[in-house]
Amino acid sequence: MKNLLTLFFISFIALSALAQAPQKFSYQTVIRNASNQLLVGQTVGIKISILQGSANGSAVYTETHAPQTNANGLATLEIGGGSLLTGNFANINWANGPFFVKTETDPNGGNNYTITNTSQLLSVPYALYAANAPDQQQLSVSLTGDTLYLQNGGFVIIPGINAANNSGGFSGPLNIETALIPAGTFTMGSPTTEPQRGTDEVQHQVTLSAFRMSKYETSNAQFAAFLNAKSIGSNGLYALGVYPSEPLIYDCGSYNGLSYTGSQWQAVAGFENHPVVCVTWYGATEFATYAGGRLPTEAEWEYACRGNTTTAFSTGACLNNTQANYNWGNPLTGCTNTITTNPGQTQAINSYSPNSFGIYNMHGNVWKWCSDWYGSYSTTAQTNPTGASTGAGRVIRGGSWDNGAQYCRSAFRNIGTPGNGSSFFGFRLSFAP
Questions:
Q1: What is the rounded average pLDDT of the residues 10-16?
Q2: Strand ranges in 193-318 using DSSP code E only, listed in sequence order
């Protein structure tokens, strides 16, 4: 019987393209016990097998490791650098996939493996692929500029070459760029004089520690990569996840989102770099874990959205049609637009100008899931608040392409049922600084 819950992600690092150099890539796994408590500072036994053809395919390579978990329950190792059992890592023909990584874990540090997990390996360092690949390949580049698609149907993700890249960092093969949000104190909520404010926006002082936030909303391409890496089927269920009975996403091709076609999730052509929609709170949370981050708290979201402003929007008292994607026919009371139609769909995640923190589309485009349960604000000063302990729904922020400016205000609060995958719902992530 399995007595551990293991959440893992793989970061691919090409150490060298030279034949004489070690060939390996890093692997990280977060290990919890049956009570969902992290195993901290413990040596665990892990057997790694590279399977070819399918999740039940033959092992072309097997090795063992005995890493120690850190203070966050994270064990780190390098596949290709363990104690060899069978096979030759350098001789694996990565072009002849698909390949799967099978992990077997012993929490006591031995070889009595009590938990097994298998996941498809969707990308490898190009140096490894090239070592045994055919001499000639026809290549095409994804719209986001971070993926090489190969003639034989495979692909190689190359972090860091996205056309939108600048000085920000990124997280692993998903290429999630982040901006540092400095520690600070701000007034959360809205003044009673703000037009069209809500009664649940009571102002109160909040102090936050520094964190990083993704510059862009999570894209269709990024979420599809996650779903396909976890072999999520058309029902959107993730059997090995924290919420196995909750759909992570709904087929949303008709709204320029993701559709399940044949055996994988794909974005509508031309919308790969648009925000993912029809994703549930459960799906956003599972993706966050996969990416090594989390959903932002409601306080973090508003602080990052404001960008040190105190006005209704980070753009000032008004939000016009050149500044955000929303229903331009409904500007905030007292404001006007030169275009007064509803744009009717999402826009690319790098559309419009970023705010003072370098973050795009905090106002409009899609509602963004937060980690908090929706509840009443405290009237006293708070430090790193995480919201209500229970509730009927989770907080969503920012408004969408179909909402008027009122709903896009920095202070506006809304509530979403966690299992609701609306065509207006997306998300972005927070990370440790």
A1: 35
A2: 204-208, 211-214, 258-261, 264-267
pLDDT digits (tens, 9 = 90+) for 130-155: 455 444 444 444 333 344 444 444 44
Which residue bears the tokens 């893992």? 8
∠ CA 223-229-232, nearest 5°, is 75
Residue-wise pLDDT for 32-76, tens only, equals 666 656 788 889 999 999 998 887 888 999 999 999 888 667 788
Which tokens is 76 given?
Answer: 């780190």
Give the dihedral sign, CA 315/316/322/323. Answer: positive
Q: How many alpha carbons lie under 13 Å from residue 300 in its C-beta half-sphere?
A: 31
CA–CA dist 210, 215 (Å, integer): 15
Contacts for 178 with CB less than 8 Å, ≥ 6 apart: 168, 169, 170, 171, 212, 213, 214, 215, 431
Q: How many CA atoms lie within 13 A of 177 on its CB side?
A: 21
The single residue listed with the structure tokens 């500007």 is: 331
371 half-sphere exposure, CB direction, 13 A CA radius: 21
Half-sphere exposure of 14 (CA within 13 A, CB side): 18
The SS3 assignment for 358 reads coil
How far apart, in Å, are the Cα atoms of 374 and each of 136, 243, 268, 371? 55, 20, 32, 9
Per-residue pLDDT of 92-125, as tens digits, reads 887 777 888 888 888 888 999 888 877 776 555 4
Higher-scoring residue by pLDDT: 132, 348:
348
Q: Which domains does the chain have, with CATH numbers?
A: 4-123 (2.60.40), 167-433 (3.90.1580.10)
With cut-offs at 50, 70 and 90, classify the pLDDT of residue 387: very high
* Beta carbons of 372 and 354 less than 8 angstroms apart: no
- pLDDT top residue among 318 and 127: 318
> In terms of DSSP bridges, do strands 367-373 and 258-261 run parallel, antiparallel, or are they unpaired?
unpaired
- Helices of type H across 136-265: 220-229
